[in-house]
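Most newcomers find our protein records easier to grasp once they have seen one. There is nothing in a record beyond a sequence line and a structure line. Getting from the letters to the tokens is the skill we practise here. An example says more than a description, so a record of this kind follows:
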Amino acid sequence: MSIREAVRKELGALNRQDVEGVMAFYTDDVVFDDISLPEPLRGADAMREFMQGMYAAFPDLHVELRSLFGEEKIVAAEYDLIGTHKGEMEGHAPTGKTFRVRALSVYEYDGRLFTRETFYWDSVSMLGQLGLA
């Protein structure tokens, strides 16, 4: 499977809120670098826990792909990240408000699975839209 096809399928699993479907595209030793976090998450278990927390807080979390570009081993996906705050998030009670922010993920691919994803997004805008900033 090409890296572009893998990204599209992984985002499809994300849009179905299918944690195991998402994780099937990553190596066990994946590095997930969310720029809003102080340190990258290391390993599939850490990434899985992060994804479960996001779906608990935003059960309708999904993306709308804007563009996909790159090479055979590294691709960037630009998208809108959208969700409604219906569950607790880092001590914040649900607001019921919806956010929409632009984001970019850079995927590194070993020809079979993603070995790294760097996730660039504006977490401050999300918090503002949710009334938490």
User: Anything to note?
Assistant: The radius of gyration is 14 Å. Residues 44-57 form the longest helix (14 residues). The longest strand covers residues 98-109. The domain at 3-129 is CATH 3.10.450.50 (Nuclear Transport Factor 2; Chain: A,).
